[in-house]
Amino acid sequence: MNPGTLLAIEDLHVVFHARRSSARAVDGVNLEVRLGEAVCIVGESGCGKTVTALAVMGLVPAPPGEIARGRILFDGADLTALSDREMEKIRGRRIAMVFQEPLTSLNPVFTIGAQIEEAIAVHERLDPGELRRRAIKLLTDIGLPSPESRHGDYPHQLSGGQRQRVMIAMAMACDPDLIIADEPTTALDVTIQAQILNLLNSIQRGRGKALLYITHDLGVVANIADRVYVMYAGIIVEQGTTKQIFSGPGHPYTRGLLASLPVRSKRGKRLHSIPGSVPDPSRKPPGCPFHPRCGEAEESCRKDFPGMCDLGGGHLSRCPVVFRKEFGSSSGGGTR
């Protein structure tokens, strides 16, 4: 684990068991988040991004889910070895999560003020007056208009953007060190999306927190990330700084994602799309899981699982074919 690392995921495998098969949703992920930085996991729906986050939070439903192998180190402690009671002391206080759809995460029969207060009361013993003051302060901090009067509102009385702000307030209730945000702007329009991103960015930068942001939108990544992990079929296929990923992607999947971004220079032209879809986690192809969709695939890609190739400066890519063609070597370290 590198100095300053707050979260280190090591060879994480998460499996979901069914009666006749098992789905390898996360299949050997390695990932680090340092205190004070914003890290993005980017990839298509079904690639294992959310399951990775749920594993960190200790929220993988068991059964049918199981952390089959690996470690999740948070501030040096292995979260996978902790009991439910021990995880409850960390969840909310030191690690908090902002979920994708606030309307399903907020309880419709309790006011937003009561729900924020509950998030605080789980970890701190405060009198009702102090709880109310803390909740209103949080609503003020996240920019909700008229926080004192909105304190008594129910979730259905708020707009989508306002509900997401409430979710962020709940996540920040106990001033955690790590915030995990799972596509929190997916259902919002572009203007509100930008406001939520700016809010998360200001909280993370202003308070020196670590942010793990999960998204399928590379435009979001460009705005908030220090470093990026590109995920496909339960594995990390490329990682590096935001500049490295955008200026010199080393994996065909990353290049496909970047080519599909709408930009002004492509106006009037058909957008690029990657053929096919993410494989079923219970029926992954042999070799490189991306090879059925890849224009660079060779015979070896259909047989051999690729290791990580070192492109320099912490930039790693799981594509020896591109590495050989562009860097003149067939080996890049060979790590999983």
Helical element count?
Answer: 12
Percent helix range: 25-40%
Shape-level CATH architecture: 3-Layer(aba) Sandwich
Radius of gyration equals 21 Å
Largest sheet: 9 strands, mixed
Question: What is the CATH level 1 assignment?
Answer: Alpha Beta
Strand composition percent: 15-25%
Secondary-structure class: alpha/beta
Which strands sit side by side, in order, in the main sheet? 6-7-8-3-9-10-12-11-13
Q: Could you state the CATH homologous superfamily? A: P-loop containing nucleotide triphosphate hydrolases
Q: Describe the global form.
A: globular
By CATH, the topology is: Rossmann fold
Kindly report the average pLDDT value.
91
Sketch the topology as an H/E string, one letter per element.
EEEHEEHEHHHHHEHEHEEHHEEHE
Q: Count the strands? A: 13
Stretches where pLDDT is under 50 for at least 5 consecutive residues are none
How many separate domains?
Answer: 1
For the record, give the distance between the C-alpha atoms at the N and C termini, rounded to a whole number: 16 Å
Structural overview:
- The protein has 336 residues and is an alpha/beta fold.
- It has a single domain, classed as Rossmann fold (3-Layer(aba) Sandwich).
- 32% of the residues lie in helices and 24% in strands.
- The strands form two sheets. Strands 6-7-8-3-9-10-12-11-13 form a nine-stranded mixed β-sheet, sandwiched between helices. Strands 2-1-4-5 form a four-stranded antiparallel β-sheet, with helices on one face.
- Strand 4 and strand 5 form a beta hairpin.
Essential attributes:
alpha/beta; 13 strands; Rossmann fold; 336 residues
